Amino acid sequence: MEQVIIVGTGCAGLTAAIYTARANLSPLVLEGSQPGGQLTTTTEVENFPGFPEGIDGSELIMRMHKQAERFGARFVYGSVDEFEHREGINCVKVDGKWLETKALIIASGASARWLGLPGEKELVGHGLTSCATCDGAFYKNVPVCVVGGGDSACEEALFLTRFASEVYLIHRRDSLRASKIMADRALAHPKIKPLWNSAVVEYVADSEKKMRAVLLQDLTSNATRELEVKCVFVAIGHNANTGPFAGKLDIDNKGYLSPKQGTEMNLPGVFAAGDVADQVYRQAVTAAGLGCAAAISAERWLAEQ
Ligand code: NAP
Fold first, then answer.
1. Using CB atoms within 10 A of its CB, is residue 214 exposed (0-12), middle (13-18) or buried (19+)?
2. Among 11, 91, 134, 151, which one carries the catalytic annotation?
3. What percent of the chain has a predicted confidence (pLDDT) above 70?
4. What CATH code would you report for 114-234?
5. Do domains 2-111+238-304 and 114-234 have the same CATH topology?
6. Side-chain half-sphere exposure of 257, counting CA atoms within 13 A
7. Which of 13-22, 207-216, 275-284 has the lowest mean pLDDT?
8. Ligand 1 centroid vs 149 CA: distance in angstroms?
């Protein structure tokens, strides 16, 4: 029986690991299907406090990993396939084997939705991203595009106007899904050029395998044309990674874990931290903060038992 199992090794999971390890709880940390989480898909992180020159996303994760190991966190590869709460014990099935724990911290993150076009995986970080806050500043005075029509797409497009020469907002319909205030703001901006009833059907890379353009299809006429852009920001929503917990833990109508108070879930000893329970901020530093909060709550809960 473990004292604490932590699911996920993004910023939230690793911060929870540092705190619980330092509290002598010897946490068992499950790496998950994408070890290191979303930060490993970005290049430079410029807004994590304490790194005035910026830091590579993978490097930041590696340092957190080391810091957790230093205090005795144990890491194992594997993802949770199933979860059960049996007579006060939290059980997770990892690669076919049931593990038991008193406290469980779920920091399984969220995954950006992608368009599913050929070459997508190779272009991520080379002109294809899902995070304007992370990567927008790398595209100064060049044209970029945002795909999507929701609040995220409008927010990303507005943020990108600070850097890019023009921001094409590519949406598959002729009206935005975004809230009126966000839509009005985006459409009123002189740098934002909406392209209605349009879809990106192909990414066009240059000889260095960096984004050069997209092939755009007009969905009313089916005509295609090339649009020169140095970066494509995909903002078609995120999916919280809650699969094994569905039906057992409280999940809101958008699919995110919904703690009843702070990071505490509806079952005893279960805590949630980071993007799996946060559809609002989704930043590395907020995920780290929530990881810390979940660890302290878990430690206090264990002490009470
Ligand atoms: P969203 O509201 O679900 O919007 C996703 C957008 O992507 C929609 O316009 C959708 O088109 C489009 N889309 C989905 N799949 C697509 C595909 N395969 N190809 C092309 N387009 C596709 O997601 P979100 O914008 O990330 O927002 C999520 C939640 O967070 C919302 O509740 C939002 O209000 C909230 N949020 C709020 C703020 C804010 O208030 N500042 C900022 C960000 C997010 P259709 O419209 O045709 O379905």
1. buried
2. 134
3. 99
4. 3.50.50.60
5. yes
6. 29
7. 275-284
8. 6
Both structure tokens of 75: 């890491």
Instruction: Find out whether the beta carbon of 172 lies less than 6 Å from any atom of ligand 1.
Output: yes
Q: Are 61 and 37 in contact (CB under 8 A)?
A: yes
Beta bridge partners of 83: 92
Q: Return the exposure string of 245-257: e unless at least 16 CB atoms fall within 10 Å of the residue's CB, then b.
A: beebbbbeeebbb
The residue ranges of every structural domain in the chain are 2-111+238-304, 114-234
Q: What are phi and psi of 205, to 5 degrees?
A: -100, 155
For the chain, the residue count is 305
Determine if ligand 1 sits within 6 Å of the CB of residue 156. no
Residue 176 has what DSSP assignment?
Answer: -
State the average pLDDT over residues 153-175.
96
Q: Pick the catalytic residue: 131, 145, 154, 231?
A: 131
What fold does the segment set 2-111+238-304 form as a domain? Answer: FAD/NAD(P)-binding domain (3.50.50)
| Span 291-305, average pLDDT | 98
Q: Are the beta carbons of 128 and 236 closer than 8 angstroms?
A: no
Q: How large is the average pLDDT for residues 63-74?
A: 98
pLDDT, one tens digit per residue, over 242-289 is 999 999 999 999 999 999 999 999 999 999 999 999 988 989 999 999
Percent helix, strand, coil in the chain, to 5, is 30, 30, 40
Q: Over the stretch 223-250, which tens digit does the pLDDT of each residue have?
A: 999 999 999 999 998 899 999 999 999 9
